[in-house]
Specification:
By secondary structure, this protein is of the alpha/beta class. The chain has one domain: Rossmann fold (3-Layer(aba) Sandwich), CATH 3.40.50. The chain contains seven helices and six strands, in the order βαααβββαβαβαα. The chain has a six-stranded mixed β-sheet with strand order 3-4-2-1-5-6, with helices on both faces.
Length: 172
């Protein structure tokens, strides 16, 4: 890892805890994955951290290959992992084998993975906190966007702008 922060997200753990994504997951697994990846992509840290979203391979939409059902892709700045065994196993091994586990932040509410993370000195962010953080960031972004919108322009101001920019200048 050599000094680079990593964020590991236990994808289905978060999706099933999200009140918007959980019902979608029951109807459209692929749609729920896409919505989740879009949510994560909007909240990528600006510090250059590597973000890994880890799914269980048994729910991978692609067929099994001769080497097992393990796939990786890069999607919207996110490393998307379909773990061969389970997401839990992949995450635990990643933390246990990390040169600097203190540079890892784990997003999950799975007790066993949390214990592994804490035992190795990795940071943890529970799913409920992650979802609240995402909601707060979204609200803050919306608030900033709304306050930056120009106020109402009066008819007099419009007339002045039309006068200034609507007629060609005499020196043209």
């Amino acid at each position: 890892m050599a000094g680079r922060r990593e964020i590991l997200i236990d994808a289905y753990n978060v999706i099933y805890a999200d009140p918007r994504l959980n019902p979608l997951m029951r109807r459209d697994v692929e749609g729920a994955r896409e919505e989740f990846l879009a949510l994560v992509a909007q909240r990528l840290p600006a510090d250059g951290s590597q973000t890994y979203v880890v799914f269980d391979a048994m729910r991978d939409p692609r067929p099994a290959t001769g080497t097992g059902r393990t796939n990786q892709e890069y999607h919207r700045g996110i490393h998307v992992i379909y773990a061969r065994e389970t997401a839990d196993t992949w995450i635990r091994e990643r933390i246990q084998n990390a040169a600097e586990p203190a540079l890892i932040t784990l997003v999950t509410s799975d007790r066993e993975i949390l214990e592994t993370a804490r035992a190795h000195g990795a940071g943890v962010l529970r799913v409920a906190d992650f979802l609240q953080l995402a909601a707060r960031r979204h609200a803050r972004t919306r608030e900033i966007r709304d306050t930056e919108k120009p106020g109402h322009t009066s008819k007099r101001e419009i007339a002045e702008w039309e006068r200034l920019f609507g007629e060609p200048r005499e020196d043209e």
